[in-house]
Amino acid sequence: MEEKSSTICVTGGAGYLGASLVKKLLQKGHTVRATLRNLDDHSKVGLLKSFPKANTNLRLFKADIYNPDEFDPTIQGCDFVFHVATPLQHSTQSSQYKNTTEAAVAALESIMRSCIRSGTVKRLIYTGTVVAASPLKEEEDGSGFKDSIDESCWTPLNLPIQYYGSQFFKDYVYSKTMSEKEVLKYTHRENNKVEVVSLCCGLVGGDTILSYIPASLSCLMSQPLNGPISYQNLESLQGILGKVPVIHINDVCEAHVFCMEQSSLQGRFFCASDFLTTKEIADYFCRHHPEIPIAEEFVGKHGSAVRWGSTKLNDLGFKYSYDAKLILEDSVQCLRRMGAFK
Ligand SMILES: NC(=O)c1ccc[n+]([C@@H]2O[C@H](COP(=O)([O-])OP(=O)(O)OC[C@H]3O[C@@H](n4cnc5c(N)ncnc54)[C@H](OP(=O)(O)O)[C@@H]3O)[C@@H](O)[C@H]2O)c1
Q1: How far apart are CA 147 and CA 160, in angstroms?
Q2: For residues 339 and 341, what is the distance between their CA atoms, to the nearest angstrom?
Q3: Which terminus of the chain is more solvent-facing, meaning fewer CB atoms within 10 Å of its CB: N or C?
Q4: pLDDT tens for each residue of 259-284
Q5: Could you tell me the domains of the chain?
Q6: Which of 76, 90, 83 is closest to 119 using CA atoms?
Q7: How confident is the model at residue 4 (pLDDT cuts 50, 70, 90)?
Q8: Average pLDDT over residues 60-65
Q9: What does the pLDDT read at residue 142?
Q10: In a 3-state reduction of DSSP, which class is residue 68?
């Protein structure tokens, strides 16, 4: 296990996962270089600079995926790189890339080149998502899930649009699937001294240190929040994965750090502590929070019989601290604190 203080790059350091990860790394005594697109964004910069030890151990860098070489100065001299940032909306000003997938893949290629050239980066840890690992069969005819979902699954990219519910979700799934395939190619490259880990996270909730409700927490809580668009995304997740894998923000950060602290690690790892249907999520709120009514159209669906087949992270010794009940309960408390429930 690596225990010394390291210099670590976190791309997308001001986002939901990124900010919590930066805070955790600082807490552990590391030096952090975080990227964001706009260093004049006072609310994002202010949050990062408010973290304990930020004044001495945190430096902020500007970098945009649409200008991939901008990540290079941040990466040179680092021991580890967490690539957390992802383009969620296509920048229409870009003539170089047609869509978010092209931009994300080009950024990964550039970031990997920087890691290799640095001569110091030991490992790149990519924040992937389970949406890139659908257990739907390749020869999809509308009814075919495999028996279980694990790290051998890859989302077939020929699914009809109705599986995604929206063009936004389809673009996200494409971009994350293609990016993860790109990054994992480097695990097979000869003479590549940079190890590559992809951590495919489930839907993240539980809490936030941001001043607004992040999109994934809105999605997880779309039923009690009565949010039609987020709820459509939640059902689409279940539509392509069979059920919804969930993970607490604190466990996500711990898992990222765990992957960094291993003396050697490569490959693809799922990161979710529970796998439940949208009906089970709604049932939890009905049973434990009858004061938060759920409208008829958000009561959820039964999902499929797909089993969670991944044990790779647990086999390495990682232990989740939050099961579904704790994730949902913390999410309720967090949204209550943020004034989302009357
Ligand atoms: N939350 C989840 O449930 C979940 C689950 C699985 C995987 N993930 C993955 O976790 C990562 C972070 O997601 P999140 O939930 O924390 O989302 P988020 O809060 O929306 O953060 C997205 C991050 O990406 C950055 N970003 C967006 N477009 C960019 C661009 N063109 N160039 C550079 N940076 C850009 C943003 O940076 P700015 O601050 O500059 O805007 C922000 O830091 C993503 O890779 C996502 O796929 C999330």
Answers
A1: 21
A2: 6
A3: C
A4: 999 999 999 999 999 999 999 999 99
A5: 7-205+246-273+308-321 (3.40.50.720)
A6: 76
A7: confident
A8: 97
A9: 53
A10: helix
